[in-house]
Amino acid sequence: MWLGFSRMETHDDFDLVPVDEISINDISVAEFRAKYLVPGVPCLFTDFSCSAGDAAAWSRSFFEQSLIGDQEIYYTKADALLDFGQSLPLRSFLKQLDEGTPIKHHAPAFPPYEFLLNSKVALMEQVDLRALQRLFPDASFAGQGPWDWTSWPLLPPYPPQLFVAGANSTSPGHYDPDMSHTLHWCVFGHKRATLFPHSFVSEAALWQLAWEDLRKPIDWTKAPECLKGLRGWTVDIKPGQMLFMPSRTWHWFSTEEVSFSYVLRCRSFSSVLGSLKFFWGLQSPAVTLPAYGAMWAKIPPDLRQKMIRFRFLPPALASPIFRASILILGLPVYLWLRVRSGMSSLLMSCTRVKPAPRI
Ligand SMILES: O=C(O)CCC(=O)C(=O)O
Ligand SMILES: [Fe+2]
User: Fold this and answer.
1) Which has fewest Cβ within 10 Å: 136, 178, 264, 297?
2) What is the pTM of this model?
3) What is the CATH number of the domain that holds 162?
């Protein structure tokens, strides 16, 4: 058995096996860590439930019929990145998706999305993390627990995100560069994903596959042939199920019917080494802060105020001295990363027309 691939299935392009389905309540901590967390093998929790608060809130009819249906949701065209340009009440947004309008909501990781901060509904407060906390180690860092996202983008993990899209929508392949463990909960709808383990050997080649729809045959005259037969996993995620993707698992998602997912993330490190890897990676704050700055500027000022009031940054991190030191220390790293990404785009443009997506 290699990385959990015990049952081989034939697939024309890759060697894919279904992920294991397990009970979040029945699996022991030791078994979860030995079989999934430590070797980096994904699995599907079939019985996740947000038992705290009003569990009925997490159903399509509740979203449509209650006040939450009035909540504005930002969206983009199905093949674009979120730009905070257009919004619709959630109820109408879902109706548009039912009618096949090619739009989607893929929440940006930064700033925390206002839908989750809505004081009338406060969805985030209803998620009971205890079943998850039991399984994951206490990866505390800089005084923050594994699930504490309030220092994003200075430190992982990403804040929780919503992904709402219509039938047959796909998102480009990637791994989440905040390096956290991802828990993708399908609240309603039906998602499908193809997953590959992270490896530095296949990294550059997999980025070249980012824009492919992996449900269709791959044209190996254009895609890197070294990926032929790559071992990975497939998974269908149905309502109430939650996919666990270990840190840096590659994922290509598609939406088989109108779907609403809520994604939680857990810090994967508790060491300075882990944080250095994060600072050196694709989502170093030196890259994300300027990149998201433009989006932040587009957010209506009253909404921005609300986010800041929601303790977006803990007080110590919001101090002018702290911000100034981040700028001074981050500037050289930022410049270096810009040069590095400029060089890799140049190399990529020799082989591909589309650039790697920025997630
Ligand atoms: O749902 C999708 O289309 C993408 C999901 C994703 O990238 C994630 O959960 O990290
Ligand atoms: Fe992702």
Assistant:
1) 297
2) 0.82
3) 2.60.120.650
